[in-house]
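Side project, low priority. Logging it here so it doesn't get lost.
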Amino acid sequence: MNLALWITAGLLTAVALAGGITKTFVPKERLAAVDGGGWTGDVGVTFVKTLGVLELLAALGLILPAVLDIAPALVPVTAVCWVLLMVGAMVTHGRRGESTLVMLNLVYLALAAFLAWGRFGPESFTG
């Protein structure tokens, strides 16, 4: 179980890092032109960059507290925050009729929920 939780944290970290780098450093116009990035045309650049920074922070929070053994309880807290972020992503893509992206976000949500459950419960770092 512990190994599955570490793998899940690693996968979600990679997703958060990729999304965060893209939203933070790629110009909004380029994002809007990419399949699945059309939503960026409906919001301001500050909103897109803020989401990018939040995703970068999530990437750090899903792994580093446990690896460094500094406040490892932040890992499941970050996973819960990722669940909330994915709910927002699902709503956004759902309104745009992007069902494939809704399903992808649902997978990320399920992984984050598994991580939160596992690290709050049976494989807690504090127990």
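Brief comment: Residues 76 and 120 are 6 Å apart (CA to CA).
Revisit when time allows.
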